[in-house]
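Researcher: Good morning. I'm working through a list of sequences from a screen, and I'd like to move beyond sequence-only analysis. For each chain I'm collecting a predicted structure so we can compare shapes side by side. This is the next one on the list. No need for commentary yet; just the structure.
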Amino acid sequence: MTQKIAKQKAKRPPPRHQLTLDEAIARLGLTGVTQRRMFGGLCYYANGNPFSFLLGEDLALKLPAMQLISASASRAGALFHPGGGEFVMREYLALSAETLTDEDKVDEFVQASYGFVSGQGSPEEYLAQRDLSEGRSGLYQKKQPRR
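Model: Good morning. Structure tokens for this chain:
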């Protein structure tokens, strides 16, 4: 009995913004959503495809290139750097603290991410894979120092 109690206490607490994401999924009526622990965080899947990642203080969502660029420019979020190092999950936007306090904005990004990985939307809405790569390339090139 003591071992069982110790195991229950050893469980990790839920990621910080899990409730925010779960509530958005419920409000939007999204189906086929599953989750799995990954790399010390929690990854959410839409019909088997990853669309959101919760890690530490971050709620990151996979977005189409144009939405990723515009959201970064408007400071709704920033490229997701899991662990805060040099590694960047280029397709993911980590929502800003301000965005996380606005249900409508959270819902907008969750819906966009879910639709994107589920293949919903028109090609005009979600660019072709080649266009996505080319559109994203400008975001990830290291800036050259000024001379």
